[in-house]
Amino acid sequence: MVIISCIMAATGGLMFGYDVGVSGGVTAMPPFLKKFFPAVYRKTVLEKGVDSNYCKYDNEGLQLFTSSLYLAGLTATFFASYTTRNLGRRLTMLIAGIFFILGVIFNAAAQNLAMLIVGRLLLGCGVGFANQAVPVFLSEIAPSRIRGALNILFQLNITIGILFANLVNYGTNKIKGGWGWRLSLGLAGIPALLLTVGALLVVDTPNSLIERGRLEEGKAVLRKIRGTDNIEPEFLELVEASRVAKEVKHPFRNLLKRRNRPQLVISIALQIFQQFTGINAIMFYAPVLFNTLGFKNDASLYSAVITGAVNVLSTVVSIYSVDKVGRRKLLLEAGVQMFLSQVVIAIILGLKVKDHSDDLSKGYAVFVVVLVCTFVSSFAWSWGPLGWLIPSETFPLETRSAGQSVTVCVNLLFTFVIAQAFLSMLCHFKYGIFLFFSGWVLIMSFFVYFLVPETKNIPIEEMTERVWKQHWLWRRYIEDDDYVAHEKVGNGKNNGFDPASQL
């Protein structure tokens, strides 16, 4: 039941991945450009070779088509935090599914740029609700020994969605009559329906039910998902955690308290770093990027399919390794791989791609695709899934929905920044764009080495004792906060209590 529930819930990732993958493909299709972005169409088709290769897709409207989804998701995540906490994880996923369906209808039927943007905004609202609820749902329903693997189902579905979008784009680009882009955008309805149906079929998490006062229901679900009647210790732990959570009237304010600083800092940093690896620049704009590098239209879509397939396979590697190897080792190994592949890509482009040349030679083109795949694979078994997994498993229950909301919010904010800026950055930085991202990979690897603790196989409710209080830096925040709490008790109700001697 756990696995089926997790698979159904993780289809939210399928929808998110399809949205990420489909935009890059349709923005490389001439009929789509001709209808909505005639200025780009002129530069890429009618005036080929006149403008710099790196600048031919540099258009604010085109970037807004991609990035508007993430701006809407950013706004929606604040509402999603309320529904996740007060209405449950399951209902939040259902709301996401409904937003997705409405967005698909607007996009597939778009007659002008306004309809197109409205559709993307609705899809963005779906992303905000889904990314808020699904990782929390997966972390709470999974047993700790396989929590990492089941949580990564969300990321696996994102990669499958991207691959599915790339395959669809490759096929619809060959449709005569210039309406293939409508089919590409309309087929997003399949994962949207899967998420909606899945949300109707799954049960809510025991944590959510107990948090909302439905104790017996929560106990029954816990018994069912654990497959045993011996659930009393875990149930009592959840009840106690819920009691503590209910005492917190302002979860966002509570999130800023000293004892929650380690989780908050790590969650925010992981989301910023995840985007500054440059992965979404490649995933959003893979066909556009390959076109820029001199690949012809079919070849660029074909190369995007290859990188999408590598993305899926590498995420499967993460599912098998995350609970065995651990989070830190995967992040550090990937940092080395991503840094080297991006530096080599920058060197090849700097030497071989000229501003107005039509083609990269076949040998170098294949090598660039191999290097992009090397980069994508390392991201897919590390920063992709772990950027979502680590925040979802480290926040205590009283700040979990607020913490996840901040996580999603920061992720979507920087996803929006990268989506909105990438084509302009490519125009101005040229091949240096890969050096820019590789510099960030170096910084974030040092951050992981010194500041990110290992969380594999540790139950969520034991993170404070077994992770934060054992870390060389973060334990100062937890222990200092404990000291202040004891001191308040000593100066208040328990006269004569000496906190220093007790500690």
From TrEMBL:
Principal place of residence: membrane
UniProt keyword terms in alphabetical order: Membrane, Sugar transport, Symport, Transmembrane, Transmembrane helix, Transport
Pfam families: Sugar_tr
Record field: transmembrane: 61-79, 91-110, 116-138, 150-171, 183-203, 264-288, 300-322, 334-351, 363-384, 405-425, 431-452
Subcellular location(s) of the protein: Membrane
Keyword Transmembrane helix found: yes
GO CC field: membrane
Family annotation (Gene3D superfamilies): MFS general substrate transporter like domains
Keyword Oxidoreductase recorded: no
InterPro entries (alphabetical): MFS_dom (IPR020846), MFS_STP/MST-like_plant (IPR044778), MFS_sugar_transport-like (IPR005828), MFS_trans_sf (IPR036259), STP/PLT_plant (IPR045262), Sugar/inositol_transpt (IPR003663), Sugar_transporter_CS (IPR005829)
Any one GO molecular function term: symporter activity
Domain Major facilitator superfamily (MFS) profile: 5-456
Topology within the bilayer: Multi-pass membrane protein
Lineage top rank: taxon: Eukaryota
Family: Belongs to the major facilitator superfamily. Sugar transporter (TC 2.A.1.1) family.
Protein's name according to its UniProt entry: Major facilitator superfamily (MFS) profile domain-containing protein
Taxonomic source organism: Lupinus angustifolius
